Amino acid sequence: MNKEAIVNENNAMIRDMIRDFAEREIRPFMRMWDETQEFPVPLFRKMGSLGLMGVLVPQEYGGSGFGYQEYVTVISEIARVDGAIGLSVAAHNSLCTGHILQFGNEVQKKAWLLKLASGEWIGAWGLTEPNTGSDAARMQTVAVKDGDYYVINGSKNFITHGKSGDISVVIVRTGKTGDTRGMTAFGIEKGTPGFSSGRKEDKLGMRASETTELIFEDCRVHKDNIIGVEGEGFIQSLKVLDGGRISIAALGLGIAKGALEASIEYAHQRHQFGQAIAGFQGISFKLADMATKIEAAELLTRRAAELKDNYQPVTKESAMAKYYASEISVEVSTEAVQIFGGYGYTKDYPVEKYYRDSKLCTIGEGTTEIQKIVISRSILA
Ligand SMILES: Cc1cc2nc3c(=O)[nH]c(=O)nc-3n(C[C@H](O)[C@H](O)[C@H](O)COP(=O)(O)OP(=O)(O)OC[C@H]3O[C@@H](n4cnc5c(N)ncnc54)[C@H](O)[C@@H]3O)c2cc1C
Fold first, then answer.
1. How many angstroms separate the CA atoms of 347 and 350, rounded?
2. Cβ 179 vs Cβ 193: under 8 Å
3. How far is the C-alpha of 138 from the C-alpha of 318, rounded, in Å?
4. Which residues line ligand 1 (CB under 6 A)?
5. Considering 238, 281, 348, 374, which has the largest number of Cβ atoms within 10 A of its Cβ?
6. CA-CA distance, 103 to 311, in Å (whole number)?
């Protein structure tokens, strides 16, 4: 069997497995998690036993050993049902776990990846700070060398799994402000003295995905916790984000697919003026636009995944996929609410949640504006 056939077979198997899992384990509870902002840790343990917490991790470190094509299927299929769970699975896999996988040493991979890939541990990744989001290179959290240790002070905000994360990969300043080689990544385990989580955000959408502050108060971390080389943390982050943006594209894609499927079903069921609303061209043209945008987003996302699987440069393509899939996710879910009319504006139907969740895709892992900067830099170079 050739590689393409194996990928297709894996994708079909993963799609069916996740559809079944999501219907049983996610759909019945997602509204409750959304309302109470509960981050359902036991669900992540279950997903670990299915290999969904180490999708890209090689089998020797306890992962599934899949490529980005399969990963796109995993994230989009989960997001088709619940974007918040999709976001958390994406952050765990591509950010925290992905950073350790790409840049960790053998000791770190054996100590951390096995637990992350099995779902025994949940991972967090901290780049953003209260005063430095898009402009992350100007971060203010500092690590000062003290013998074999570094003393970290400062804070990170908007960190997915900042409270429940068993390990956080954090990027902090070890050199001069503005020096892109003046930042270093550390793996810091939960319970390390001086390291705690702060306020949990009360969010518009993605409410079952936990988002909190990380606080560092004279937190002493051994030099063995440095991931890769001192000073390379920010450069590493950009590479991690190249892959991470494919997962946010998949997230937007999945949310849009879920919104379209719900809209098609509703358009057949809902009757006005003596006929199903699907029969009105005003509605069917909306559905045609939604379906076309989804196809285009999937092509861009699959293209980026293909390049990544073939170890090709992917910075421009992952930014394009992330930018487009995120924006159409918002457009598609907005139209879905319109198709549902007043019922779309209530919590009795799923589309208001797609609408709220989709917006995060245009913000997390680099806003739409930042993606356009990345793309334009690349085409103007
Ligand atoms: C739910 C959620 C989960 C997240 N999870 C994580 C996580 O796990 N780890 C992590 O490190 N971060 C995480 N983030 C943070 C996220 O990556 C940042 O919010 C994002 O990068 C934007 O930063 P900011 O919010 O500070 O916005 P700002 O950078 O302040 O941007 C504000 C506005 O200005 C625009 N802007 C900024 N600079 C430019 C420019 N040069 N040109 C044009 N427009 C510009 C932006 O596009 C935006 O519209 C998360 C955020 C959310 C909401």
1. 7
2. no
3. 24
4. 91, 95, 125-128, 133-134, 158-160, 203, 206, 211, 360, 363-367, 369-370
5. 374
6. 15
Q: Report the pLDDT value the prediction gives residue 178, as an integer from 0 to 100.
A: 84
- Ranges of beta strands (E only) in 42-139 are 123-126
Q: Which two tokens stand for residue 189?
A: 């385990």
pLDDT band at 337 (very low <50, low <70, confident <90, very high): very high
Give pairs for 108-111: CB < 8 Å, separation 24+. 108/187, 108/227, 109/61, 110/61
pLDDT category at 3 given cuts 50, 70, 90 is low
Separation of CA 361 and ligand 1 centre (Å): 11
Separation of alpha carbons 327 and 332, rounded Å: 9
Confidence of residue 9 (pLDDT cuts 50, 70, 90): confident
- pLDDT value at position 342? 98
Catalytic residues: 365
| pLDDT (mean) for 120-139 | 97
Instruction: Report the alpha-carbon distance of residue 16 to residue 122 in Å, rounded.
Output: 25
| Ligand 1 atom nearest residue 367's Cα | 47
Instruction: Specify whether the CB–CB gap between 233 and 185 falls below 8 A.
Output: yes
Nearest to 196, CA basis, from 165, 233, 231:
165
- Phi and psi of 205, rounded to 5°? -140, -170
Question: What value does the mean pLDDT take over residues 100-123?
Answer: 98
What pLDDT does residue 1 have? Answer: 60
Asked whether the beta carbons of 351 and 341 are under 8 A apart, the reply is no
